[in-house]
Every structure is written in C-alpha cells, then in structure tokens.
Amino acid sequence: MTTVVITGVSQGLGRAMVAEFARQGFSVCGCSRSADKTAGLRQQFESFHRFDEVDVSSDAEVSKWASEIIGDKGPPQYLINNAAVITENASLWDVSATDFDRLMAINVSGTANVIRHFVPSMIQNGQGTIINFSSGWGRSVSAKVAPYCASKWAIEGLTQALAEELPQGLIAVPLNPGIINTQMLQSCFGEGAHLYPTPEEWAARAVPFIINLKPTDSGQPLSVPD
Predict the structure, then answer these.
(1) Which of 7, 20, 186, 192 makes an SS bond possible with 203, Cβ 3.0 to 4.6 Å?
(2) Cα 24 from Cα 26, distance rounded (Å)
(3) Is the pTM of this model over 0.85?
(4) Gap between the Cα atoms of 25 and 173, Å rounded
(5) Range 19-23, long-range pairs (CB < 8 A, 24+ positions)
C-alpha cells in the first residue's frame, strides 16, 4: 500500500486530503498539534492509517515521528508539507516578534524539519514526491499579511532549490493550492470566503493532480487546477 505523509491534518486542506487519499486507497500518516483532533482522526480512520500529535517547528519531535513512520511504513511515496499558520491582519510593524517568529518556525522551519528527516529515506528508496504548499501570496503580495507572504515566498525558493539537489527519481514541487474556504481564509476574507470551494471540493481535484505529477514538473511553481 502506497504511503503518503501529510502535515497539518487537523482541519482545512490537510483534513480534506486525509479523507481523499484514504478514499483512493493510500495509507495516510498525518500529524497535527491538536491532541483532540488527532485522536478524532485515529477513531475515524482504519488502523493502517496513522495520526500523531507533532509540532513541526520542533526538530526533535519531527525526528522522532519520522523515525517511527519510516520504521513502520517505510519511506513515503508522497510527502506533503501543508502545516501553516497566519497572523491576524495587521501592518508588519504591528505584528509582534513572538507572532512573527512562531509563523516562520511553523511555515518555513517546520517544512525544512520534515524534509530533513523524511527525504533521506526517500532518496535511499530512489523515488518519491515532495509537495511544499505555497500560496498565491507566495507569488504575489497583499497588505496586512506580510509575514505569511514572506513565509510562502520562502517556500517557493526553498522548494525550487531542493529540486536542484534531489537525485533522479524524486520530485519536489512548490504547489499553490488556490483559494479555498478554510478557517485561514475566513480570517482574512471574512464572509467573502464562502464564495470559494470547500476543502472537500478542492481535495477531489488536488489529490489526483498530485498523484499524476511527472519528473518534468520538479522545481516548477505549479497550482492546483480550478
């Protein structure tokens, strides 16, 4: 059974991808910082899936989690860095150092931590696809969301450089998921978020797109089709 590892599975896009990958017959290993929501996922899905409470900003926690997953399931075929947070809408100078640093620790360092501890096994296995979620705000900007923009622009550069480093057989893609009605979008768009697709509607398009990525896609800044 093909294994997919997904971070940030407690809600939104991560939670929707869990359901869609599971529906398509994958073994899903996911993590979240929420103990309650992680426990709920364990109750809902069969035992050959696995869900753990992990803070991706902690290299030690990610190291332990990756070691356990690889020992149990082997190297994943798909590694999806989805975990991310956003600050409240505010001018950059009004964002506290604590909030800024927390966002960068999860959105950027968290992605690097997951890569650090999963990708060597994928290289040894000679195959695998790494998806690092970017954003429209990783290729453009808006006022009041500067920290999030900075983190997603970083993901774009990090992933394109990673693609240059990977051996043949592995793919790395910075993926813009598009605009979806998630809790994060609601924090920025308010009621306007309801004009956009639900995470479940999005996952029905996104998962097949991810599964069908080709070696020539590696390093390309792609977007999930509408």
Answers:
(1) 20
(2) 6
(3) yes
(4) 23
(5) 19/200, 19/203, 20/200, 20/203, 20/204, 20/206, 20/207, 21/207, 22/46, 22/49
pLDDT digits 0-9 by tens, 30-89: 999 999 999 999 999 988 999 999 999 999 999 999 999 999 999 999 999 999 999 999
Beta strands in 114-196 (DSSP E): 128-133, 170-176
Helix (H) or strand (E) holding 150: helix 146-165
**pLDDT by residue (tens digit) across 92-114?**
999 999 999 999 999 999 999 99
Residues in the chain: 226
Residue 5, token pair as written in the block: 């590892």
Residues forming beta bridges with residue 3, ordered by sequence position: 27
End-to-end CA distance of the chain: 29
CA–CA distance from 194 to each of 16, 127, 174 (Å)?
Answer: 17, 39, 26
Q: How far apart are CA 64 and CA 62, in angstroms?
A: 5
